[in-house]
Predict the 3D structure of the following.
Amino acid sequence: MKATKLIYSALALAVVALSSCSKDKFTDTIFPDVDNELDPNSYTYKFDKWIQQSYLLPYNLEFRYKMEDVSADMNYNLVPAELDKAMDLAVLTKHLWFDVYKDIVNADFCKQYGPRIIHLIGSPAYNPNSGTEILGLAEGGVKVTLFKVNELNDPTPANIEFLNEYYFKTMHHEFSHILHQTKSYPNEFGLISTGLYDANNWQDKPEGYVNSRGFVTPYASSQVREDFAETIANYIVKTDEDYKKIYDYAASGWATDDADALTPVYYRWYYWKNNEVTPEQPENMVYVSDAECVFTYDEEGNRIGVNLRSDKSIIVYPVEDTDGVDGVAVIKQKIEIARNWFKSAWNADLDALRNEVQVRQVSYDINALRKEITDIQ
């Protein structure tokens, strides 16, 4: 079968060359050369003042929305963030990240452990060698870079699935890196999926397949530290319904009819041609994807798939789960380790953080958040 290569979004962690920020002596600001006097006649005066009051003063954080070449990777063809998109992301970042930790953990948590710089880039950073795109970078516990800002076209809760996938999951992912660079994650986490990580080909594996092997996303299956950050970030932003799907996939068996393909396609259902069960003739077995069928059940309890390509009703059978991994149990075990680590290392309640984010991400009023900027004096 000829397969089309899927492009997966990668959350990339830069090599940590700096020591953890928690070991540094905390001062009033790490930006002594920054001129805090703003020009009231500037077109961006209100936004700049809001940034100063919302990020720099309370968190000792510089929110850079004007792309700086010196702060960007010159190996990528990047464009600046559009002003209106940067403003929306700035208020949403405060509401769905910093304010959550302030309310659930304590007011100084992000001031002490959060990044010192958030840098916005308008475009993604494409990696043509792997077919991936970088959405975020955490550098030495100091700077978080967020890409793809110019695709923030609908900042309302109605678009929260997109916003989570491309922005807020990235934020929580990168913050998790900063936290575990300060206090290491438990060694037991790295032992759970030993031998199953694939740093080179993770982007070629579909979500359902990696779920069945105990990873919450394909990127989580790349290496241990990404697995840990992805476990936390996805747990915080994804809904209970999202996890029902993840656990459904995790409980399934997966197979491919073209294992030697550059990018194999994985399936969890198959049917027999003409509905004739003929195990002795495996060539009569046809794999079918979830996207190709609408499923129901007949009176005998058989799972029926109506093939969308032919409108034929077929009995489908689950692919046997032979990987030896209880994907559901493994994912839940990883979440439990992360939960206990948040409590023991940070005296923070991961479930309380998640619950607060779940409420906020479906109930915020983007126009009210924008007024924080437009009404500033």
Q: What stands out?
A: The domain at 9-183 is CATH 3.40.390.70 (Collagenase (Catalytic Domain)). The chain has a mean pLDDT of 84. DSSP finds eleven helices and 14 strands in the chain. Residues 297 and 303 are 5 Å apart (CA to CA).
